[in-house]
Amino acid sequence: MKTETFSQLDKVIHEKGRMAIMSSLSSNPDLSFKELKTLLQMTDGNLSVHIRTLQQAGYVAVSKSFLANRPHTSYRLTREGQSAFKAYIELLAQIVEWNQD
After folding, report:
1. pTM given for the model
2. Which residues, given as ranges, of the chain have pLDDT below 70?
3. Scanning 9, 18, 36, 41, which has the fewest C-beta atoms within 10 Å of its C-beta?
4. How many domains does the chain have?
């Protein structure tokens, strides 16, 4: 494996908070803001900024609705997000394999 493999890591996903969001949404197809916040132990502001970055990259879709007359925001990975996350994980696996040789 060449050292430029590391530079191929998706920088949008690679940040710790965004990787946690992508991982969470990968295993839970639909999570609310509150669920993500609790699961990842992030502040409202921190989670919002990371979600916005992922949304702008086309990786996360946002759904807004009302539940019991209260705003409800939920998130899911888009197809592009699923593909990007899969490619990211596969590249990480290659890096780990390379480092074990």
Report:
1. 0.89
2. 1-4, 98-101
3. 41
4. 1
